[in-house]
Every structure is written in structure tokens, then in C-alpha cells.
Amino acid sequence: MKRLIIAVAALSLAACATTPTLYQPAARPDGVGYSEYRIEPGRYRVTFRGGPGAPPQQVMDYALVRAADLAIAGGYDWFQVTDRFTEGRPDRGPRVGVGVGGGDFGYRSGVSVGVGTTFNLGGGPSLATTIEVVMGKGQRPLGRDAYDARALRRTLGERI
Predict the structure, then answer these.
(1) pTM of the model
(2) Per-residue b/e over 24-59, b at no fewer than 16 CB within 10 Å?
């Protein structure tokens, strides 16, 4: 019995361990970090996958920073996000459920009421944001989805 309690405690602690969300290349396709795919010169698909419980804004910011890094490394001045999507959902916290049941067993019947709750010990689900970007030189196009690569790297890069 003592071994069972120790094993359950160890598994509970392991479930609480989360992978931190760091700005780094993903070690594997479903790993935390960034990855990119070059579609053609000056056009990339950039994905950033956050660790469990990472806020959606952080995941999006890290994808934008990676796009800025690619633009700067390629000698471009700006990039424009032409498409974006997010996989997963942010964790909404603990949940509570209520259930009622009954049964008839011939001479006897029974009714029961149950209340349950769930807590995500793993830190929440993982989110992944993918953006497709087009890069260019010279004057940046107008629009809210066009970014100056160096300015974005300076401002968002400070938070990394």
C-alpha cells in the first residue's frame, strides 16, 4: 500500500511538470518552439508551438518574432502576414459537473446525485500559431498586418 501511495504521488508530480515556452527551435515536429517552411523566396510559413498553458498572445508574439528574424536574415526590411491560424484552445480553468441518476430494482429504487470537478495538472493544452508571411525591401506596405522587421524584433524581442 505504501508503494502505491508513493507511485501515485510521483505520477501526480510528473503530471504537474510542464514544458516552459521558450523562444527556440522545436526539437521535434510537435515540440515546443518555432519551425518554418520556405514556400518560395521571400515567403514562409512560420509555426510557433507553446508549452502547456502558454498564453495565446505569447505564442503569436513568438511567431511574429521568428518571422522578423527570417526577414532580417534574408536581407528584407518588412514582412506582411497574409494568413494565420491557431490550433488548440486555451485552458479555461477547472470545470464542475453535476449528475443525477436513478434506478428501479423491483422492490427497491434508488436515486443518486453526484458532483465532480476536474483540474488540469499538466498546465493546460498546448497552442500552436501558424502564420504565412511575405517579405519585401524598401517601404513597408500599409495595413495592420505589415511589420517593420527590425522594429518588431526590438520591441517584442525585449520580452523574450
Answers:
(1) 0.70
(2) eeeeeeeebbbbbeeeeebebebbbbbbbbbeeebb
